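Q: Could you fold this chain for me?
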Amino acid sequence: MILKIGICSNDISTVSMLIHFLERFSFAYDIDFNISSFTDGIEFLQCYNNALGSFHILFLDISMPDINGIELANAIRNTPDRDVRIIFISAHNKYIKESFQVQASQYFTKPILQQDFNIEMRRIVDDMISQSMPKLILPTEENVELVFLNNII
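A: Sure. Below is the predicted structure, expressed as structure tokens.
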């Protein structure tokens, strides 16, 4: 599985750190990424709108000139692409409440540790894989069983 990742931050060191973390995660968990990075929120939004549904996970910096990460996420959530996972990156936690309003999957405060990054990415990736697997819902006498088709022999 190749996951398409979008990173948007005007801070080059944040972009570099996230790419490095993703490369290490990719190696450790055998997951391939196609990473696109942007240093301008308006440019990112134009690219995103021209390629709806092409990203699986977005890393958005909260503090950027012209348009901040929360505003970007609001614009993204107003598109038909409801499945993209949004992860916020910030030097402070004052926008955590707003991040819930745009269904963020995670909110990292800087500095971010690779170990914390891996734990949350693993959770997000596992959830994405689980949601994409074909499954059956089978009623039983007591309740309902969820059976993944790849578990059927």
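A (continued): Residues 9 and 42 are 11 Å apart (CA to CA).
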